[in-house]
Amino acid sequence: xxxxxxxxxxxxxxxxxxxxxxxxxxxxxxxxxxxxxxxxxxxxxxxxxxxxxxxxxxxxxxxxxxxxxxxxxxxxxxxxxxxxxxxxxxxxxxxxxxxxxxxxxxxxxxxxxxxxx
Length: 117
Prior knowledge:
Layout: E1 8-10, E2 28-31, E3 36-40, E4 46-53, E5 55-60, E6 63-68, E7 72-75, E8 81-85, E9 92-99, H1 104-107
Antiparallel strand pairs: 1-2, 2-9, 3-8, 4-7, 4-9, 5-6, 5-8
């Protein structure tokens, strides 16, 4: 990936007997320089995120936390959060999951624009 592409791309997980294409919702992402995951919340589950490589800025409510490879962060259920690549030249790779839900559908996924006025 070249600097400035600003794309989010899933990377592969290899498991015996299963093709990567069989797992469209797997929670591993490579986020290119300049990329960002939008502000969202999960009303039915907590979220954790682990930084495999690179550096990221994680917003949790009104706090902004810098994460580096080896760091893990927890987001309370219902708390708005987002993640952006902290580097202008290198990708960041993260793995995440939910506590209290097995899928995104169970966790729920709300954007600020989804909230009632």
